[in-house]
Design goal:
about 425 residues; alpha+beta; Aminopeptidase; Alpha-Beta Plaits; 2 domains; 10 helices
Length: about 425
């Protein structure tokens, strides 16, 4: 009678998982290339909510879900789903996924990676006939970016019961309302609320996402555990001055709105240093916009972020006082319109523990970092426990065609989430 060496058995399991993870990672990279073709533009990746490209992407992903021996469906707002079912039909579900929509002129991994890794996880479990005490549901959320209609996280908010009826009246740049777009897509606007799922039937949410920042690359590490997701507040800032002829109004009598706006933007940078926050002025417009006319009105955007809401809000208070002061002493008026607000959220401690343990077992140095970008995971706050795993991306570049990741890092990410899910399910890793 032969005796099985436990250490040799464990080594065999590790080798099997690494080989299969690498094979799956290669497939994920190819599929990211395939989904890049589901675009509204032949020149770049553009996949917005309720577009033909959205429908095309959902169809492709549903096919891959079926190949993975999982059930597939599309919900009432356009999220695409897959399920690796538990033998217990009444069991709750663990959700893993991210989003399938994109910004204009996007990269091919933002959001997509998390959905495809979820499918590969389901495929691995199905192949080895792993029995889970819960359903594993993979989701491709339909509108995280908010490009077409301006409101973000629509798909994940629909899932968590945060869908707002007022969104139906939002319009895109062509004047098409969200309600009209849903009808054209083949969805019933009156059934949008049906996408909500009872939180009692959900035991957690895990999102894998490219970092969209440079820290993991700087650390020389493939993956990292996310601790917090920064809260963001966004404003449209309006500086009002007085237009005039550039050759006839003396400098000391001018109310130059652009000069005032430039000093306000300098104050934005000062606020980031004083309070250790992130702030960006990404848009600016000047009226009348003529070379020989003193600017009378300037609009600029302000995006302010921090993992600590209190710090962010103190920075905002200081900044607004500073900008008012700079404008007032130049005879200008400044006003602010808040267009977005999202509180910072902390990732669940159990998820952090599960992912850290999985990293150790995978031979990866345990490390953690906060997210400066918003994610679907934010919508899960108050709904279910939430965890996130970041994957290294080249140069921290995202929302850009130069977005790049390595197949080896994708393999590590898949191994980590496989171990974490099996640990949560309290099942042995298949050999």
């Amino acid at each position: 009678m032969s005796v099985i060496n436990p250490m040799l058995a464990a080594t065999k399991i590790r080798e099997t998982i690494k080989i299969q993870s690498l094979q799956a990672a290669v497939r994920v990279m190819h599929r990211c290339d395939t989904l890049a073709q589901a675009s509204s533009s032949p020149a770049h990746i553009e996949r917005t909510y309720l577009s033909n490209a959205h429908a095309q992407a959902n169809k492709i992903v549903e096919g891959w879900i079926s190949e993975a021996q999982m059930q597939s469906w599309q919900d009432s707002v356009g999220n695409v789903w897959g399920r690796y079912a538990s033998e217990d039909v009444e069991a709750p579900a663990l959700i893993i996924g991210s989003h399938l929509d994109s910004v204009v002129n996007a990269g091919r991994y933002d959001g997509i990676l998390g959905v495809l890794l979820g499918i590969e996880l389901g495929s691995f479990l199905a192949k080895h006939r792993v029995k889970l005490p819960f359903h594993l549901d993979v989701v491709g959320f339909c509108d995280e970016e908010g490009v077409r209609f301006g409101a973000t996280l629509l798909g994940s908010k629909a899932l968590t019961g945060k869908w707002q009826s007022a969104w139906m009246d939002l319009t895109d740049e062509n004047g098409v309302s969200l309600s009209e777009a849903m009808t054209d897509f083949g969805l019933d606007p009156l059934k949008a609320i049906d996408a909500k799922r009872d939180p009692e039937t959900i035991i957690g949410f895990l999102e894998v996402h490219i970092e969209q920042g440079p820290l993991l690359e700087k650390r020389g590490l493939p993956v990292g555990v996310v601790t917090d997701i920064a809260g963001a507040r966004r404003f449209e800032c309006i500086v009002e001055g007085k237009a005039g002829h550039s050759g006839t109004v003396p400098m000391f009598l001018r109310n130059d709105a652009l000069l005032g706006a430039s000093l306000c933007i300098q104050a934005v940078e000062e606020a980031t240093k004083r309070f250790d926050v992130l702030a960006t002025v990404g848009q600016i417009s000047c009226e009348p916009g003529a070379v020989n006319v003193i600017p009378g009105n300037v609009n600029f955007s302000l995006d302010l972020r921090s993992a600590k809401d209190g710090v962010r809000d103190r920075a905002l208070s200081w900044l607004m006082k500073k900008m008012r002061f700079e404008c007032r002493r130049r005879g200008l008026n400044i006003d602010y319109i808040e267009i977005h607000s999202a509180d910072a959220v902390a990732c669940d401690s159990e998820w952090q523990r599960l992912l850290e343990s999985a990293m150790r077992d995978s031979g990866v140095e345990v490390n953690s970092l906060a997210s400066g970008a918003g994610h679907d995971a934010m919508a899960m706050t108050g709904y279910t426990s939430m965890g996130m795993l970041f994957v290294r991306c080249a140069g921290g570049i995202s929302h850009h065609p130069a977005e790049s990741i390595m197949v080896e890092d994708v393999s590590v990410a898949l191994e980590v989430i496989t171990r974490a899910i099996c640990d949560k399910a309290k099942v042995e890793l298949p050999s």
